[in-house]
């Protein structure tokens, strides 16, 4: 998605503000206190949203980066969640306490998701325990979404899965490991569920196209469900 001539100026300013904010955020997140946790929590939210928007404009190969941009983005996202874990008691009683979300049930049964069989069928094809865990974490989030009267937004759950990815899984993604790519292709379904947010626009389809382009044979068949759901096929996705 290339910016129009009218939007290039705004994109330039956004990149400037983004690049100025990152070093300060990185330095401050090393020492979270009662005084700075509120500003850090707000900054983490803004960085996450801006990262999705900016990565779409520069068309980086997420999650297969040719540079460190994607790795930095996930690192910042994980840092934001770490702030919440470290300073939850301070944040909940502060000015941003009303922004905090928690699920109605932390570990709902997978069966709550009517499409869980589409995910469960992947397990026999995943030999790496790291990929198995990433898939089961994703299954749990889909079950949360399907929980009646859910109290946490789907957008927050989409960020939660990325923030919880292990370093090992991210390495496998960068290497375009087939098992990791299959799991990531199914994450595109979750991303597509938050497509109405301007900063998430098109991310589900964009991610699935990249995953499809790096799979073939049996692996291509294993991602047939997200391809069908997002109205792509193996030819148009590549």
Secondary structure: elements and pairs:
Blueprint: H1 5-28, H2 37-58, H3 69-92, H4 116-120, H5 129-146, H6 154-163, H7 167-174, H8 178-192, H9 203-213, H10 218-222, H11 224-229, H12 234-237
Features:
globular; mainly alpha; 2 domains
Gist?
The chain is mostly helical and 238 residues long. The chain is 64% helix and 0% strand. The two termini are 16 Å apart.
Q: What is the rounded distance between the termini? A: 16 Å
Helical stretch tally? 12
Report the β-strand fraction as a percent range: under 5%
Please state the overall shape, judged from the principal axes of the Cα atoms.
globular
Helix content: 55-70%
The low-confidence parts are none
| Beta-strand segment tally | 0
Q: Write down the overall mean pLDDT.
A: 87
Major β-sheet profile: none
* Rg of Cα set: 18 Å
Helix/strand class: mainly alpha
How many discrete domains? 2
Order of helices and strands: HHHHHHHHHHHH
Describe, in plain words, how this protein is organized in 3D:
- With 238 residues, the protein is mainly alpha-helical.
- The protein folds into two domains: 5-99; 110-237, no CATH class.
- 64% of the residues lie in helices and 0% in strands.
- The protein is built from twelve helices and no strands.
- It has helices at 5-28, 37-58, 69-92, 116-120, 129-146, 154-163, 167-174, 178-192, 203-213, 218-222, 224-229, 234-237.
- Helix 5 runs parallel beside helix 8.
- The longest helix has 24 residues, at 5-28.
- The protein is globular, with a radius of gyration of 18 Å.
